[in-house]
Amino acid sequence: xxxxxxxxxxxxxxxxxxxxxxxxxxxxxxxxxxxxxxxxxxxxxxxxxxxxxxxxxxxxxxxxxxxxxxxxxxxxxxxxxxxxxxxxxxxxxxxxxxxxxxxxxxxxxxxxxxxxxxxxxxxxxxxxxxxxxxxxxxxxxxxxxxxxxxxxxxxxxxxxxxxxxxxxxxxxxxxxxxxxxxxxxxxxxxxxxxxxxxxxxxxxxxxxxxxxxxxxxxxxxxxxxxxxx
Length: 229
Description:
This protein is of the alpha+beta class. The chain contains seven helices and eight strands; from the N terminus they run αββαββααβααββαβ. The strands form two sheets. Strands 1, 2, 3 and 4 form a four-stranded antiparallel sheet that branches. A four-stranded antiparallel sheet has the order 6-7-5-8. A hairpin with a 3-residue loop joins β1 (about 60-65) and β2 (about 70-75). α1 (about 5-55) crosses α5. The radius of gyration is 23 Å and the shape is globular. The N and C termini lie far apart (about 75 Å).
């Protein structure tokens, strides 16, 4: 092996090592941020919900489904004593909404939307019946999709890797192309009609074929697009 070949091998190995370290650092940073946000959200929600609960049971409204059917969870004081119980409640909240989405339109509400009892909830629903019916009709046959640009691994040397990776994280025109086949767009979230899902999938496929890594999740209830009364 020539000195040139040996040098090329060493540089290649070092570039691989640097790339691996950078990828691991990005992964660790995302995990740290997610854990911090989760903990802050949980702590704040426990505090606020606990203040509302005050030792009394409450009715939590997860959403309103087809036919103005309320999706509810009954909260007891002990339900909010620790994060494990809170996590189960959040999961149940989400499952109620996903189940309703499979059956038809749904207007999702933020977790922690509570009423002192069923009568108070029924009165509120009656007061906002027209607005909720209009919103259900607007969201009929739609769902929310998240398309997050992660970037691509650039074919550059180690010294230029980080700058090149950051430059490819947000692709110019990506959101515009996805918004063009959506009903509405908000950041990385897109409200997509069932009738246009094939178009949306085709654009996602085109972007992926261009070499950009996308994190796609859905269908979700239209969390980012519901207009609540």
